Amino acid sequence: MIIVRRAVATDMKTIEQLLTEASLPAVETGNGRQHFFVVEEPEQRLVVGTIGMEIYEKCGLLRSFVMDRQLWNAEIGIQCIEILIQYARQLELASIYLVTQAAEGFFQQLGFAPISVDKLPIEIQESTPVQKMEQSSSVMVYWIQH
């Protein structure tokens, strides 16, 4: 059994470690855009995954979806994305965007649709993940609207 909860300050070191192990960019602290959740194994109180979203005006940029490979399954992945989508609704965000090199089918099943970079809101276009993505031809951008 696992639980998904909002990350607290004491989770940040573990989140950074998960991101590093997955070769993902570090969390940009201090800008107030970062909103992370953690996936926790409650019996041992062990953080085994994380999912985050950067907030820009009225939209969010999904980032850093990482799970321990031994515990990963599609059900947990869907639960994490659904929690993040519900959180975006609570914040009254109009859209959520994501940049990925894999799992296109997974995100499309959850309602995300392909979008070209030039159609992204300017603040998302200028974000670090999208700027880094433009250097790779194998990356896809998706969005979902509420």
**Structural class determined from secondary elements:** alpha+beta
Number of domains: 1
CATH fold descriptor: Aminopeptidase
The average pLDDT is 82
CATH architecture: 3-Layer(aba) Sandwich
Number of helical stretches of at least 4 residues: 5
What is Rg?
A: 15 Å
Per DSSP E runs of 2 or more residues, the count of β-strands stands at 7
Strand content: 25-35%
Top-tier CATH class: Alpha Beta
Tell me what you see in this structure.
The relative contact order is 0.16. This protein is an alpha+beta fold and about 150 residues long. It has helices at about 10-20, 75-90, 105-110, 120-125, 130-135; strands at about 5, 35-40, 45-55, 60-65, 95-100, 115, 140-145. The protein is built from five helices and seven strands. β2 (about 35-40) and β3 form a beta hairpin. The chain has a seven-stranded mixed β-sheet, sandwiched between helices. It has one domain (about 5-145): Gcn5-related N-acetyltransferase (GNAT) (Aminopeptidase).
How are the secondary structure elements laid out?
Elements: E1 3-6, H1 12-21, E2 34-41, E3 46-56, E4 59-67, H2 74-90, E5 95-100, H3 104-109, E6 113-114, H4 122-125, H5 128-133, E7 140-145
Parallel strand pairs: 4-5
Antiparallel strand pairs: 1-2, 2-3, 3-4, 5-7, 6-7
Question: What's the short version?
Answer:
Residues 2-135 form the N-acetyltransferase domain. The protein has 146 residues and is of the alpha+beta class.
